[in-house]
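FORM 7B: Structural annotation worksheet

SECTION A. Query
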Amino acid sequence: MIPFNKTIAYTKNWKHTFWTALLLGILLPVLLITLEPFDNSNSFSNKYVILSGYALCIIIPILVVHPLENYFYKIQTNRWFVVNEILYIISTLFTIFLFAFFYHFYVISGRASFTFDLIWGFIKSFGFPFIPIIVPFWLYLRSKYGLIEVPMYDKKNIKKTKPLLSVERTNPKR
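SECTION B. Predicted structure
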């Protein structure tokens, strides 16, 4: 079993977070264009440009969630735990799924109204199949760019105390 309170590497730097988001954002359209997993072999105008728009559905949520992620990192005295990573991945995936749904719904399908059943159906049929491909690569990039910070010893914040027992040595004169 995974210890959820284990400290793991954290990607605090905006540059590394941007590169992670960009690489993940590029991966999805490349998969959609090359593999055509959902029978998108239909010819429609600007097909590759429209499918490339899914990159923004990954990049924007990762960059939007990063300040909140940094906030929790600072609250925990610059430490990041396995449970934080799990919650981060789940919440950001949910945000990515919502962005992808609205992109698909308004840009690709051109519909005007939606229901929560449509959102859930989209997540089940279009979102979940990409989790085994995207999430391991995402975790790899986060651990590659991440660092584990060890809090430094700060002498000025340490309270000086007197010893509990003071034992004096005396030299008996012989």
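SECTION C. Observations
Residues 82-108 form the longest helix (27 residues). The mean pLDDT is 82.

SECTION D. Sign-off
Analyst initials: ____
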